[in-house]
Please model this.
Amino acid sequence: MDKWTEEIPGGRRINGQIWDSRERRFKAGEITWNREGVIDGVRPRSSVERQWIVPGFLDQHVHGAGGADTMDSNHDRLATMAEELAKYGVTGFLATTLTASPAALRKAVAAAADYAGDRGAELLGIHLEGPYLDPEHRGAQPPEWIRPADRGELEQLIERGRGRIRLITVAPERPGAEDTIAWLVKQGIRVNMGHSGADFAAAIRGADAGADGITHLFNGMPSLHHRAPGLVGLALSDPRIRVEVIADGVHLHPAVVRMVWSAAQGRVIAVTDGISAVGLGPGRHHLGELEVEVDDRAVRLPSGTLAGSKLTLAQAYRNLLTWNVDEDQIIDALSTLVAERFGWEDRGRLAPGCRADAVVLDADRNVLQTLRGGRVIYAKES
Model:
């Protein structure tokens, strides 16, 4: 018996204030799961301990953590990343690449595709952030490796990825982008638009081709203008589009976050864009092959350009509560909407038949324990 869960015949159980996705509120009760880690019951209880239980967090855009980076292309480094993310309630993530040479991308994709570690959070797939981007809106993406979309290269990457490439960020205005987006969607791969100077017409064409998301809204794209809405205007107005938000208080002002939630309610996905510095102190760290400077709040290139973040999804949860975003919408953004987007029907909810992927929180929404398939992958020390 650990501090929060206990053994029962045929499995385990946990008691607490359990998030009910249908009623969109916490309800006192218990969750039980079998030895395969699948929930077989969620039942009411009249008296429970003061802990709050929510679906495991899912991060579709994270480059690294704990000193490790997806571009390290190494299973031990991916395991380090997965274990660090589990400390912050993450039960599943997309290992996110950086724009790089064709050979480096193939190596990173192959390593992530072959990774099947059971330590920490589960690597659920790969997010290619580039390399088919706009060099004028590259952010921290290495300009020397940004290039037009290449079907041959994509076919090689998909082959190396063995079905695990789930998401690609593309600039829709670049040569060949629309055809590439349509082709990727036919392969079952989701497409975000980002690192892009697309005007509104190009953004619409990208969405019509099948792109259904925007990478870290407002960052890596022109600001909203009332006569030139661009990608931001599409994100705020088009119900087809999921919107990534980095809720660290650096990438976006809290007032802008509230505006985004008001305009795009039910479509906002919280991401970290976290790099190897997640869980580490200030100093010099790496993002792919780039050296970055990290202080108490932000990650930047020596030029001052933002280069990912040191945000965790647990901190994003607390920030969003402080900024007066409704808690039901926060939980959707951290878990449920990601699971729905990628068709993971057994994740993002605490219900019979779903995986026992859960986060146990205290009253201040600090992580006490993270469960993956009913197995403890992180527990806070007393």
